[in-house]
Amino acid sequence: MIQSVRSVASLLLSTFFLLTAMGLSGYLIPVRAVAEGWSTFTISLIATGYAIAFTASCIITPRLVLKVGHVRVFGALTTIMAMSYLLHSLVVHPAVWVLTRAMAGFAIAGGYMIIESWLNEKVSNENRGALFSVYMVVSMSAVMVGQYIVPLGDPSGPVLFMVCTLVCSMAVMPTLLSTAQSPQPLTQVKFDVPALYRRSPAAVIGTLLAGLIASAWGGLGPVYATQLGLSTAEGASMLAIAMIGGAIFQYPLGRASDRMDRRRVMIFAGFIGIIACAITMVFGVDNRIIFFAGMLFLGTVLFPIYSLNVAHANDHAEPDEFVEVSSGLMITYGVATMIGPLVTGAAMDWFGPHALFAVIAICFAAYSGHAAWRISRREQPSEEMRSDFLPMAAMPDLTPQSAELDPRSDPAYGEQSIEDEEEPIAS
């Protein structure tokens, strides 16, 4: 295990710097926007620009790599990302920030994909699960470190943007200086959402709702914290506690879904989300203990529901279709992240900061209700057809390359015979 981690240490270090910059900018930019007096809907447009470019990069970056190679594209993307952070500090205007945030979204997604494809070349099917777990821990830790850098500086000045630029620039060093051979070209995204929906409606609708929830939280959670008077340190803790809750409870929630109809666990997760949002709306931030307990409670389902959707979709797929199914869900998720901030931003402008949790609660109710309806329409797959649940990183940003790192992408993983199984009841 130690030897396996050592072989990809430079790539993991690049991941850490890249996602530290992402965590820092993801918290800093909304806080600075609030300080500038911009409306919540305006801030949501900035988050939407990021989401559109991030999703587009998942389709465009593989073509760029095919033309000029991994190292050159990674260097160019890191430069673009660093430029975007400097432009944020040089030109403080919402229209410009929509474009510069889109630059960062495109670059982060592409950088993600290149690192993940590189990691995938370095792992074997024997150590894939262990390295996948290490990768998730590094990713989540980096995001939290970035968020906690914000309280160390002044969000209204240029220094934190410069720090973000420096950290981003550091991400390119381990990869450029690595002696590891460049990997094979990135996987072209292949997906057929209508076919995926016919195969697993609960997973596709669940993924759309998960994207709405995660993007509303990630894009406007810092705005909520700032408008309610939390310090930058408390806002960073709010985001980190929710992420920790997701990381801790992904496994027990997933294991429960392995033992029963996953849609029943989806219903349960939806109810937990509704209760957590209700607690926050009733008690607000006046009692910090109750508030942070509510954030931990919310985090237990905020991020794991995406993994539930992936597992449920793969219950209805062949083992060698994992990457294609996951890619389709990731693109679906990406489309939802374009919509979530806009809807939530408008609601927060009209009804106040607590509308954030009202919108999230409505999405959780829809998530739970749709899963309940699907139970009445279709039986669960047989035990032999069901795939294993594996947790994914407690973060909203996903690319098709991360699916290749997942142990379930190996067709031999959990190999099973389904020769005599009856077909599931049609939708």
Give an overview of the whole structure:
The chain has 16 helices and no strands. It has helices at residues 2-7, 9-35, 40-68, 70-90, 94-122, 128-149, 159-176, 193-199, 201-227, 232-259, 262-283, 288-302, 304-315, 322-351, 355-377, 400-405. The model is unreliable at 416-427 (pLDDT under 50). Helix 3 crosses helix 9 (201-227), helix 3 (40-68) packs antiparallel against helix 14 and helix 6 packs antiparallel against helix 10 (232-259). It is globular and about 60 Å long. It has 427 residues and is mostly helical. The longest helix has 30 residues, at 322-351.
Beta-strand content estimate: under 5%
The biggest sheet amounts to: none
| Radius of gyration, in angstroms, nearest whole number | 21 Å
Mean pLDDT across all amino acids: 85
* Structural shape: globular
In the predicted model, the low-confidence regions spanning at least 5 consecutive residues are 416-427
Q: What is the number of helices? A: 16
Could you give the count of β-strands? 0
Query: Percentage of helical residues?
Result: over 70%
Q: What class, by secondary structure content? A: mainly alpha
H/E element sequence: HHHHHHHHHHHHHHHH
